[in-house]
Amino acid sequence: MDKHEFEVLAELFKVFGTPTRLQIMYALYEGEKCVYDIANELDMSQSAISHQLSILKQNRLIKNRRDGKTIYYSLLDSHVVTIMEQGLNHIREDVPH
């Protein structure tokens, strides 16, 4: 890997650095949802969720599709699912001291 790839990877991991974004991604792990559904599930305002969704989309972690006036969000691809699963497996692993 070259220096640029490490910088890009570090930026990607920064996006995972907030509990709110992780909660949103976990909500989308269950399937596609609209802002209203995510906001209700996480007990947050729709504007706060929209802001975080924008960051996740800019960093190519989620995608969206429009159905009439409603926009539905989902995880971008299997790579994002794998990152989430591997992270959860890692923190849940019982490591002997």
What's the assembly state of these chains?
Answer: single chain
| Name of the CATH first level | Mainly Alpha
- CATH architecture grouping: Orthogonal Bundle
Envelope shape = globular
Characterize the main sheet.
3 strands, antiparallel
Report on this model:
The chain is an alpha+beta fold and 97 residues long. The protein has a single domain (3-92), classed as Winged helix-like DNA-binding domain superfamily/Winged helix DNA-binding domain (Arc Repressor Mutant, subunit A, Orthogonal Bundle), CATH 1.10.10.10. It is built from five helices and three strands. The protein has helices at 3-15, 19-29, 35-42, 46-58, 78-92, and strands at residues 33-34, 62-67, 70-75. It has a three-stranded antiparallel β-sheet with strand order 1-3-2. Helix 3 crosses helix 4. The termini are far apart. The relative contact order is 0.13. The model has no long low-confidence stretch (mean pLDDT 94).
